[in-house]
Amino acid sequence: MTTITTVKTVERRRPAGRSAARVGRPGIAWAAPAAVFFVLFAIVPLVLVAVLSFMSWNGIGSPQFVGSDNWTKLFDDPVLVKSLWLSVLITVLGVLVQTPLSIVLGAWAAGQQRNRAVLSAIFFVPLLLSATAVSVLWRALLDPNFGVPAQAKWLFGDGNLLGMQSGAIGVLVFVGAWQYVPFHTLIYQGAARAIPKVLYQAAEIDGAGRVRQFFHITLPQLRNTMITSGIIMVVGGLTTFDTVLILTQGGPGTDTTISAYYMYQKAFKGFDFGVGSAVALVLVVVATVISLVMVRLSGYDKMRSAMEGL
Amino acid sequence: MKRRPNYLAGLGSLVWLGLVALPLYVMLSATLQSRSDYTANGPLGIPDNLTLDNYTNVFSSGFGQYFLNTLIVTVAVVAIVLLLVPPLAYAIVRSRGRVTTGVFRLFLLGLAIPAQAVIVPMFYVISQAGLYDNLIGVILPTAAFSLPMCALILTGVMRDITSDLYEAMAMDGAPTWRVFFQLVLPLSKGGLSTITVFSALQAWNGFLFPLVLTQSESTKVITLGLYNFQTQYGINIPGLLAAVVVSMLPILLVYLFARRTLVQGLMGVGGK
Amino acid sequence: MKKRAWFPRAAAAGAALALGLSLSACGSGDSSGGGDGGKIHVLVYGDSANKVEKQIVAEFNKTSKVKAVLDTIPGANYQQKLQTIINTDQAPDVFFNWGGGSIKPFVDAGLLLPLDDFIAKDSGLQSNFLPSVFNAAVVDGKSYGVPMRGTQPVILFNNGNVLKDAGVEPPKTWDELLDVVKTLKDKGVTTPIALGGGDKWPTLMWFEYVYDRVAGPELFEKALGGDKEAWASADSKKALSMLKELVDTGAFGKNFDSVKYTDQGSVTLLAKGKAAFELMGSWEYSQHQTDNPEFAKDGLGYTTFPTIEGGKGDPANVVGNTNNFYSVLKKTKHPEAVADFLKLMYSDKFVKAQLGIGNLPTTTNTEKFLDTSASPEYSKFQFDLVKKAPSFQLSWDQAYPQSAADAMHTAIQQFFNGQLDADGFIKAMQALPTS
């Protein structure tokens, strides 16, 4: 919690101009309905999860308090540590693959040409499919004997993609990108359209080429968008679940058992809700810390005061 | 100003088109074949005997009811999100209170809660509220879990409204609510359409909450209905994919009609 | 530093509220279901076999005053959902399960109604079912389930055309199997045996049969009873070395962990002649009838699992899924209606309906309807197999407690792909919880 407090202190420096105070500012009442609603249906269950993490419960009888047993069990568990690393790895790879793709596609789709509109519509479709459908489709496509690998042996060898760790992780990252790039493309497309045309016109007068324009105008102008989109990708990556369930089931061995799937295994296949809840909490904490760090580093948090301080 | 075509980006987009279109082709061609033809031709084959049987099966398996339920859930979730998030984001961006800062942090925390993690406590909360096997019981948590992302997106947009504009309104002596309705909302149209799409997709494709929180045929949603095409040990792939196509068509149609507004609205999500 | 305090305080308040909620939730098991007087809820695994269950419920409702309501739960998540609701007001009266380990925790928690009273009033509820199947739902000496779908023994399927082309016969012994595999490989069949290793449970079937043939069902019984040494016994090591030998000869090809049964990958290998064998539950037959009708007619063959020379197990033993069962919750308000409902599970109508969708019921009257089944010859083969088997070993992952299933699947996958050696596998199995 210390991080939070420090950030807060930075913000609290009031730019004590009386003119700013005259502008009507919304009070807490504006945030209250959403906050109450959220606390009731998300935070309360989360707190219950925290309570459960100190209990032994198979879902049937009454939960028994067991102190920190679940936690000691967990920290001795090599699979948990491995699962956290795998989660982070898949998330990082996901961001690295999705971000450049989304930016390029978004900047491209922002153009007004008619064919781009048609293509954008097709690009959008994967977003509409449920994760289950996406996974079933890709399973069929990646079958080593009847799918793409059988047609492109020069690329896939014997097609044992899901039978080895690197292949299985690659597939998860790729399928994740396939599914979510459209959403991020959409965000970047909107943002790219909002970049003032004059900037490009000025650059063109200066004789800057397209590549230079992209790196000197488009990218810097998309900075804020990258943060929003990045946070969404990180959170999405850390909570990847359905694709693992259907494509790899955590295998081969435990080589793609990422934390979200491990938690599901513990809680719902092993019916050890105590340990499952503890894994869930670890995941929430890790994801929250990463999002906070991103928000902090990027200055997303401070932007407001910066802007208002003027 | 006329610009020359961008070959590089064009080529990239064509490659991506291939990657997107191939699975979609597999999906469509599978749904137009009988199970035995699909197995004989393989996923990449060219269908020879086209049939619409898979689609008629979908409609005869109770999909109408599932459809209606999914629609109710989606509309309600979007309504709740649109009702709660704009004032929230407005307060986060404009309020000086310490409490609202705390609220923002709370929502950041919420971003990372996997629905899997809270499903058991959620079951108790909902059944204690007497909402088990009731669509309302699905709507409330689905909406709650869409809030953090929507709040993040919308605050990003509202942040870009400059203080000059607020001050101009203040000169006119506008009260807070008028600033909200006449300045903030119109300038956040982009964010509003993004969160509409986002929450609608969440609700439309939601699986876990309906699974655990409903039971009877009358409250089933489409995602649960897909299991009519599976057995304990196998999947009727053409049947399942036909159901998938049917279930995504409405959203695709909405998208195609609303595309122009949507993309224009998307201008400025997190950017300027 | 005042501002720092909000979080702990809020958290404490939240925890108090939450605890209150959870405690009240736990204590509410005895309150009335409210509003469904005169109804019994029947919860089943939701899949395409629901046709028959719907039919039987409709049949029951024709005459009964208490009406049955069928609730289907999407298959893959059935157990998750069941476990969530079983101790709450939302629990059903009657529910689908796999017998054995799948209901043990519910019995231990005192939630299930022993069916002894029902059987005392109508002995048909026991005597009309094959004993080896009925016994799979006996826990601690009491019956808790009535068979309600079809039996699914594991059978070695083959592609007769591939065997003919290679000039070989289906193997009767393990050594013959190794020879046949070698011959097939020499003739260019790269994957003599199709295996959906991506699903993990198809791999387990090989372990179940080889262990049973080598050591008899007793080894597994002992291990399940908590005797960890059983896994380290000489028989266990022998079984493992035989499995290892088979994998190492390339019998399953190189990419079996990327192939799945559930998306038709392995089935298609067999049907298209790229593989000669597949060890699979009896349901594979009807799968081929739908997906590969021509192959089902003139290529698909089936035999029992090969015998193993010097093995202690009876060669007539089978492994697989004995059947699915209906169990009854103690707190049902209409036990008489439930008993009447269960009696339908040995009715002629039920048997015919199950046979109609390719399931093989395990009632004693099944035999006289076998001719009405879609494929009488296959149904007879299967029924004889089950009827004559001295032991019908329930799949390991269902016999063990649910909490063991994942670690078990991981271990068998790792043994087949070489990530674990025999000692590592033995250790992994010894680490599984047994009760």
Automatic annotation (TrEMBL), chain A:
Alphabetical UniProt keywords: Cell membrane, Membrane, Transmembrane, Transmembrane helix, Transport
A Pfam family of this chain: BPD_transp_1
Subcellular localization: Cell membrane
Transmembrane portions of the chain: 28-55, 84-110, 117-141, 161-181, 226-247, 273-295
InterPro entries: ABC_transporter_permease, MetI-like, MetI-like_sf
Principal subcellular localization: membrane
Cellular component, GO annotation: plasma membrane
UniProt entry tagged with the keyword Amino-acid biosynthesis: no
Mode of membrane association: Multi-pass membrane protein
Protein name: Sugar ABC transporter permease
Organism: Streptomyces himalayensis subsp. himalayensis
From TrEMBL, chain B:
PROSITE patterns in UniProt: ABC_TM1 (PS50928)
Localization: Cell membrane
One GO BP annotation of this record: transmembrane transport
Keywords: Cell membrane, Membrane, Transmembrane, Transmembrane helix, Transport
Keyword Cell membrane: yes
InterPro entries: MetI-like (IPR000515), MetI-like_sf (IPR035906)
Transmembrane domains' residue ranges: 7-28, 66-91, 103-126, 138-158, 179-204, 235-258
A Pfam family matched in the record: BPD_transp_1
Residues of the ABC transmembrane type-1 domain: 67-258
One cellular-component annotation, GO: plasma membrane
Coiled coil feature spans: none
Membrane topology category: Multi-pass membrane protein
Annotated family: Belongs to the binding-protein-dependent transport system permease family.
Protein name from the UniProt record: Carbohydrate ABC transporter permease
From TrEMBL, chain C:
Entry-linked InterPro entries: Bact_solute-bd_prot1, SBP
Keywords recorded for this protein, A-Z: Signal
Signal peptide (from-to): 1-27
PANTHER family assigned to the protein according to its UniProt record, in alphabetical order: ARABINOSE-BINDING PROTEIN-RELATED, BLR3389 PROTEIN
Name of protein: Extracellular solute-binding protein
